[in-house]
Amino acid sequence: MSIGVDQVPQSAIAVYSGGMDSTVMLYAMREQGVDIRDALSIDYGQKHRKELEAAAEVCALLGIEHQVADLRAMAGLFGSCGLVDAQTEVPEGHYEEDSMKQTVVPNRNMILISVATAWAITKKVDAVAYAAHSGDHAIYPDCREVFADALDRAIQLCDWSAVRLYRPFVNVSKAEIAREGVRLGAPLEKTWSCYKGGALHCGKCGTCIERREAFHLSGQVDRTKYAADAPTVETLLKSDWRLPE
Fold first, then answer.
1. What is the pLDDT of residue 11?
2. Number of H helices and number of E strands within the chain?
3. Which of 1, 147, 183, 230 is 20 to 30 Å from 29 at the Cα level?
4. Please, are residues 41 and 16 in contact by the beta-carbon 8 Å criterion?
5. Exposed / middle / buried, residue 189 (Cβ in 10 Å: 0-12, 13-18, 19+)
6. Under a CB-based contact definition with an 8 Å cutoff, are residues 218 and 210 in contact?
7. What stretches of the chain adopt beta strand conformation (E)?
C-alpha cells in the first residue's frame, strides 16, 4: 500500500535534492498519477554537491525536467553550518546526536520552498512537494509538521493561484520510505545522502548512518557503495547505531 497519499495534488513542482526521500517521493507521485511538471534542486553552496548530479541522473531516468537554482551567493549568510562553511567540519555520528545541529542550514526549507513556489506559480501547477519526514524533526525544525502546516497556509496567500504545500512523508519514518522506494522500483543506489560529498558515501556522518539504519529496519538490501573505512552494519548495531569509540 502506498504511503503519504493524503490530499494528492493533480500537478506539482517537486523540491528535489537527489536524496533517497525526495526520490521516493517522485516515484510515489508518479504512481499516484500526479503530473510532476518539473523538479527543482537548489545549489546553496553545499559541500555535498554530488546530490545535484544524482538529481539530474534520476530526473533523466524519469523524463522530468530538472532545474538547478543557483543560490551560492547566500552561503555566507548561513554562519558556521558544517554543510557550507569551509572552516566547519561535517560531524560524524548518529543523526540525533547534539553535534548534528552543526548541519542545520538556517531556514533552508523555507528558502527552497519559496523558490519552488515562484516556479509553481509560473507553471500554473497545484502544489509544491517536499519530502521532509518524521526522522528529521529532532534536528531540523523546518521539517516539523507544524512548520509545514504554517508554510502551506503562507504560500496559499502569496499569489491569487493558491499553490499549496504537499508534504506526503512528514509523519513517515525513513525506514518506511526505504521500504516504499524498493516497492516502487526507485533506483535508491543512485541517490545521494552523504553530507561529506566524497567519491563514495562515508558511512559515518549522520545522514549516512540514518540511511543505513533505515535499510536495516525496513529489511531491504542497501546497495549503496560506502567508503572502505566505514563501520559495518554489525558494528553499528552493537553500538546502537553510534560510532564505536
1. 97
2. 7, 5
3. 147
4. yes
5. exposed
6. no
7. 11-15, 35-43, 65-70, 127-129, 164-166
Type of residue found at 202: C
Query: 242 CB contacts (<8 Å, ≥6 apart)?
Result: 93, 94, 97, 236
Distance CA 37, CA 123 (A): 8
SS3 50: helix
Rounded Cα distance between 137 and 74, Å, is: 24
- Look at 94-103, 167-176, 216-225 and tell me which has the smallest mean pLDDT: 94-103
Are 49 and 43 contacting, i.e. CB atoms less than 8 angstroms apart? yes
- Tell me if residue 142 falls in helix, strand or coil: helix
Structure confidence by residue, pLDDT tens digits, 62-101: 999 999 999 999 998 998 888 988 888 888 888 666 667 7
Give the residues across from 164 on adjacent strands. 127
Do 128 and 163 contact (CB within 8 A), yes or no?
A: yes
Q: What is the chain's Cα-based Rg?
A: 17
pLDDT category at 4 given cuts 50, 70, 90 is: low
For position 72, what pLDDT does the model report? 95
1: pLDDT strictly greater than 50: no
Residue 73 CB: number of other CB atoms within 10 A? 9
Fold annotation for 11-238: Rossmann fold (3.40.50)
Specify whether the CB–CB gap between 62 and 55 falls below 8 A: no
Which residue from 154, 123, 127 is spatially nearest to 29, judged by alpha carbons? 127
| Contact status, residue 133 vs residue 20, Cβ threshold 8 Å | no
The grid coordinates of residue 34 equal: 500526479
The rounded percent of the chain whose pLDDT value lies above 90 is 75
Nearest-CA neighbor of 152 among 115, 113, 120?
113
